[in-house]
Amino acid sequence: MPSERGLVVNAVGLCALLGLTLLIRIYRIDQPIVENYVGRQIPTAMVARNLDRGMGFLHPQLDTGPFPNYFVVEPPLYEQIAVWLMRFSGLSLEESGRLLSAIGMTLAAWGLFCLVRCREQVSVALLAVLAFSAFPVTIRYGRSFQPDSLMLGFLIMGFALWDRGLRFESNRPTFAGVIGWLLLAGGLAMKVTSAYIFIPILVGLRISSPQEGVGKRLAILTSALLPAIAWYLWANDLVNAAQGSRASADNRAIWLQALAPTALFSRGVWGFIAKYLSWKCFTPLALPLAFLGYRYPNTANQDRLWLAWGASAMAALLVLSAKLHHEYYWLALAPFLAVGIARGILETNRRFHHVGWFGVILFVGLCGYQARSTWETPDAWIHLEAAGKIVQARVPGNARVVAPEALLFQGDRRGCRLEYSARGCRRAAGE
Fold it and tell me: Please, are residues 408 and 396 in contact by the beta-carbon 8 Å criterion?
């Protein structure tokens, strides 16, 4: 058992890591939401602003015509929480969305620590949090106005609470179990594609609970999918009845096509996989360190949970291969790789005295270098705020504008999207 002093040091270390996780992501919180994948941030923010104006949770709408243009790819849970946070904090909507994503990623890091600490040494848990928080992909999308970060935070913390209930509580429903279920249900609703998490949860269930209780607990856990299922049943009726934009119907068709992993036969998809795994999302050191960590574990007290997480997340990514050019899908692998990297660093340090700590510095430095552009407004949008003010000053509030989607949001006007690429023009014309 660790000494009282050791417990204090570990608690201080965890708090410092979680504080840095949050602070790094809220730096330049007032930056326009046009870095990384703008086509996901702007529609999310449009829905949030319309919720604030009373358009209704069950009818999430965009400001791009023809109207009504429903955005039903997921229930607007993230957007609603962002609105509540805006009203509570006094921040702008964009700042509230960034803060909410930063809180979500911090929650994910905390949940990851809890899951690892139950199974491994505290050094592995702390290094896993460091690696997870430093990944370029968790930095980029841990401050974006989109639901992926909060989804991951809800899922990992929900899993951690449920896992704690299995390990330390009785078989009766517990407060931790109820909160865990609510978080899992919220995370699955925000991104139902994250249902792969049931595989590692099932592995954890079979290890942590008596055999006779697995079926009942699994049934309770899978019921967390019910809110997402209810939403998509409602969304299907809403899209079919809509007389305005066909964007929702187009998105539904695109998603149904994406569920068939035929894109795996494309050389371009494998190029994305190699690029995102080896460089853009996780840095060149991530895969070698993770391989070393899982090849030579640092403790005999490990279980199959993390290998199940990695395998199920990778399988989900391959099924969604047509979507892999969207970098934020790779967040699914971040917990699995973070644990492997933590083990790999400690194994390197054991074999080559102090070399592992040099690797920590190099790893974190590489991550920061790769993620540096996320705090910079892209050149294409450098004048967006000024252009938005001009639109607000010169265009009547009830007028319709043809403009890039980001300018429609920044100028707080409704209208039609101005597109330049052939694919974008086809989709806009189809609407």
Answer: no
Provide the Cα torsion 109, 114, 115, 120; round to 10°.
110
φ and ψ at 403, to 5 degrees? -160, 165
Of 135, 129, 102, 133, nearest to 113 by C-alpha is 129
Q: Are 153 and 343 in contact, with CB atoms under 8 Å apart?
A: no
> How far is C-alpha 68 from the geometric centre of its chain's CA atoms?
28
What DSSP designation does 279 have? I
**Helix 77-89 × helix 175-190 angle, to 10°:** 110
Query: How many other CB atoms are found less than 10 A from the CB of residue 12?
Result: 10
Among residues 201, 149, 223, the alpha carbon closest in space to that of 313 is found at 201
The pLDDT assigned to 385 comes to 94
Tokens of 380: 């294409």
Instruction: Report the range out of 99-108, 157-166, 371-380, 409-418 with the highest average pLDDT.
Output: 99-108
The encoded tokens of residue 280 equal 């853009």
Return the sign of the alpha-carbon dihedral for residues 46, 421, 239, 241: positive
- For 32-53, how does the pLDDT look when each residue is reduced to its tens digit (9 = 90+)? 999 988 889 999 999 999 999 9
> Exposure string (b/e) for 226-251, b if CB count within 10 Å is 16 or more?
ebbeebbeebeebbeebeebbbbeeb
pTM surpassing 0.70?
A: yes
- Among residues 282, 274, 342, 335, which one has the least CA distance to residue 127? 342
